Amino acid sequence: RSSDLDNRIVELYLNRDEIAIKQTAEKFGKRLFQLAYGIVCDKQTAEECVNDTYMKAWLSIPPQQPRDYFYAFLKTITRRVALNCCRNRNRLKRSAFICELSAEMEQCIPAIDNVECSIDDMELRRILNDFLGQLTDENRNIFVRRYWYMDSIIDISKHFALSESKVKTTLYRCRNQLKEYIEKEGYIL
């Protein structure tokens, strides 16, 4: 949700005023750090990811004008930067946690390595958004915390005051529902 301050910060970026970065850091820095840290599990690397986020925002605005979704815009950049750090850091040996999440999602969306068989990202994005819109608030929040923010089962159970078993069961059912939904939509896996 956009605020007047968000709009003013975006306007500073559009006017190439470096104060935009300072105000972005003041308003969103802690939350962006938490997101990056949850992915890279290293304080210094998380700080670097957040700083890279500010630079990428600076380079992206303009032409982007994320007035109505500024925080979501920043979170997306931070998540991509942090995941790229993990990939680069673990090029030879992949992070077990990332592999675990990938394996869970491959139960409903198999990974495709062949370029000719690449996924139509726009269609899949629409299907995922429609699917998430049909979930209960609790199930959607659990699903997003796990597969977008990469929270652990333990962290999700604490955050929502649920047992770990309940979280695991919810995620299992959501993945199965997603697979069925994707197939029902006629999307070829």
Characterize this entry briefly.
By secondary structure, the chain is an all-alpha fold. It has helices at residues 4-14, 19-40, 43-60, 70-89, 96-106, 121-134, 137-147, 153-160, 164-184.
Q: Care to describe what's here?
A:
The model is unreliable at 111-119 (pLDDT under 50). This protein has helices spanning 4-14, 19-40, 43-60, 70-89, 96-106, 121-134, 137-147, 153-160, 164-184. The chain is mainly α and 189 residues long. It is 72% helix and 0% strand. The protein contains nine helices and no strands.
Helix content: over 70%
How does the major sheet shape up? Answer: none
Number of strands: 0
Rg is 18 Å
Tally of individual helices: 9
- SSE order, as H and E? HHHHHHHHH
Q: Determine the mean pLDDT.
A: 81
Shape, principal axes of CA atoms: globular
- Beta-strand share of residues: under 5%
Class of secondary structure makeup: mainly alpha
Q: How far is it from the N-terminal to the C-terminal residue, by CA?
A: 34 Å
Poorly predicted sequence stretches spanning 5 or more consecutive residues: 111-119
